[in-house]
Amino acid sequence: MTRLSANAVLGLACILFALVTAFLWIPFDTDTWLVERARGRYTLGDSLAPTLAAGFIFLAGLMLLREGQQTEDRPTYNNLQFIGAMIGMGVVSILLMRWAGPIAVNLFASGEEYRLLRDTAPWKYIGFVLGGGCMVFAMIAFVDERVTLRALIVAVLAVVGIILLYDVPFEDVLLPPNGDV
Amino acid sequence: MKLSFKAAIAAAVVAVSGTVAHAADWTPPGPIKMVIAFAAGGGADTQARLIAEELEARHGWKVIPEQVTGKGGLNAVNALKEAPADGTTIGMIVTETLGYNMASAKAGQPTDVTPITTTAGTQMAVVALSSKGWKTFGDVIEAAKAGEDIRFGVMTGMLGDLAYVAAKENGVDFNIISVRGGKAVMNGLNAGDMDVGFGAGIQAKAVAAGDMVELASARSEPLINSPDAPLLSEYGVEFSNETAFMFAGPPNMDAAARDAIAAAIADVVTSEGKANAFITKGFGGPVVISGAELEASVQSDFDSSAALIQAASE
Amino acid sequence: MTDLGALDYVLLGIQAVFAGPEAFSLLGLPIPITVAMVTIGLITGIIVGATPGLGGVIAMAISLPILISIFGFNSDALLPVLGFLIGVMKGSTVGGAVPAILFNTPGTPDAFMTTLDGYPMAKAGKARKALKIAHFSSVSGDTFSDMVLIVCAPFLAILVEAYLDLPEKTALIILSLSFIAAVVGGSPAKGLLSCGLGLLAVYIGTGEDFYPRLSFGTDALSDGIPITAAVIGVLVLGAIFVELEDLWHQKRTSGGIQIIKEVGDQRLHWADIRRILPFIGRSAVIGTAIGALPGIGSTLAATIGYATGKRRHDRRKAPDDPSFGNGAPEGIAATEAANSSVSGANLIPVLSLGIPGNTAAVFLILAAESIGGFNPGPSVFKFTTDLNPELVIVFGLFTAMIFANLLNWTIGGVFMRSLGVLARIPKQLLLPVVFLLTLASLYVQETDMSAVWFAFGFGVLGYFMRRFAISPLPFVIAFVLGSRLEDTARQAFSATGGDPFFLFKSPIAAIFILAAVAVIVLSLRKPEAKSA
User: Fold this and answer.
1) Do B30 and A117 touch (CB under 8 A)?
2) ipTM surpassing 0.85
3) Which residue of A56, A154, B236, C424 is most buried, as measured by CB atoms within 10 A?
4) Of C171, C192, C172, nearest to C520 (Cα)?
């Protein structure tokens, strides 16, 4: 057999990840070891639980190698294309959601801070409408493989609907990104 | 490790009534974010949310509560450190966060935040189920000396140290179990997973019903519900726990904002309302200390923590 | 205050539901808030169940933040919110049969077996009757399961409290996790991987030390990963990615859904009920037994229920009756009773041990944790003489479940039969909207942009897990139980005075640990035995 099975590749990846986690990530990124001494006694340290988790992943890797070629479930090139596109659209939309409002305030309301306007219309809607609308529109257009008016209408209806659902009836509810700017 | 609360209350009430007038001019420039360092649904969280509600009702401010829990309140302190100092971010923690927790984690200074005001004290007691048959903490020590394994439930690092020192001073050993939150100690006692534990006031109902008994006061004065219970100092423990709930803001907070918020919160907790009723029932009544006095007591808490940390590491 | 006995708690629970605060009044009759929320939940559940591409999990994920905004963080919020979620849970199980029977498109994986006989029946002009059989069987199974829950959970909880100490509780969580890892999905290796990843994820940024472990010193990771973001990301967003991709591949020209004309008598006669009752009974027992074990979901229950029913039917049917797969009403009954009876029994481990067994239970725990004041687990069942509010909540929940069943018996069937039209909503328009709605809901609860990023990231992880045929359920349950596992282990270790062998010192704990190892080892041997 010249080509490794999907399970074998996944298994090797698990083993590698588990080893890196257990011997590099955990020791260098955690304050206490597996056990530590406090108040004259041994107590469990912060490393123990993650090391156990790494152990599970390691064991799963071994078992995957042993299971061998039972199934061929793995992402294909086609799958990667799809999820790559989704990630791209999602990241752009979320960034738009976060920054569109502050940028608009900078451009059109000089001297004001977005933070203080985050509960004031229309500023508070800019990010959600642009980012959320972009997300829905892009996803529909991608799956349909064409840009349609229908996709645009659905996207607009979706953001307006969500604003009506959350922002209008609830005094204390803030839409993204207004809760933590 | 001791705040002289009694004297402070009197002074603070006077101070508060003095600041109300000029602070009334201040209005927040935007919505106020209220960082809450306690898990949702617990007594402390309810207290914070009731205060938020009444601040909105009485002053027309918009207050948005946000949970930032973990690391004994230090996560909340971190959130405050970065926030703008114009009064749009405040947080509810306990005095222990800026005292013992900061000192033991070696994570900065109390001046990393601006103390605003305390709201309520605690009724910190050593608690056990009455079915154990113990009357005072002395009985627990006797049981330990007779060879019984004693499991002691604590919810903060400082209380763990207190339990350790209490055992050491009396020549016994406790198995100290740290849990998250006072409710978990109560559950542990009820389930028989622990023999004794600390309660900050949450035990009041069970004590009144006779299901639990307060074996000792961890404070420097007797408990309200069990005035006859001995103090831990009677068992050779020279430290006490006077934890109080408090609000703090970002470092170098705008003075007008700080005074106005302090006055508003003091008004909410001391005058009749839902928050006041809740605090009176669960935490033995409002305790309002603010300004320089609070700063000084928090700092002295921090400075004196080293002694307890030292005692518990021996 | 007079002392409270067990019966008083039952009465208080019923009162909490029916004498609670009034939502509105209908024809002069005050409608209590919990009653109203259970009803709305049930209707919502039937609607989302009947819409292909949606389901109970999505509805729960989206509605939880709205509910918390409405009801706030106090114990008065618990019954209305949990009642709503239970309504959704029950409604979506019933609703799932609608598109399966009418259009051969199962809305949920467990409804797949329903298509086998439901769709042939519909094609034969008996759609309405098939829906009635599905409804009758589903609600019967559900009701049976709830009865078992109500009887068993308190006793199991009291046993657990009486006999299990901290080391045993630690061992029990380990056993549950290994069981879930071994039985969910085809391969135990992938189950274990899913479980390990879930644990590792929940340990990031948490822990006892001041330094947030595994955070690379970054602010984003230092508060840990919000549990809702991880759960919703892997379960909901991951599933939406997969569905969207399937649509993208199909480039399906929607439309062309045929409406089949109904022929003949559509009523459900006593004779019909007598015929399907034995199938319902067996499947209800199978489903309840499976539901009581954590991790094995309704899909397996449906499969086993269907297979058992088929064996019986093949032996006993009259020669001219349709056999399973050709439109046998017994087939629908066996499937629907089995998958519906999982949901009630699934709450047995939740309420008595605090261990969630399926996704619906995960959301109930999330709701209880977000609102606070109710910690599902054995400590809830403490019949104290002074008021134990958590116990009242439990009996309130039981009342809400019985009430939801009554509603389901009466209006559920009528309502469900009117929903065939929902199957025609184009999924490629619906799913992106649901995606955004889910993110917005998550943000409303967490008020933190990092939660949105986390959820999106975990959605991508959930997508890849599904493409590798790794079940996301062990991940989610490990994430939910991870902190408890660590905390209980720490406490057990301290409680035993730092004994490194604390998990093996008591016989019960040792048995649990051995069983945990045995479950994994046995599941490894199974495929070999089959191929040999």
Assistant:
1) yes
2) yes
3) A56
4) C192
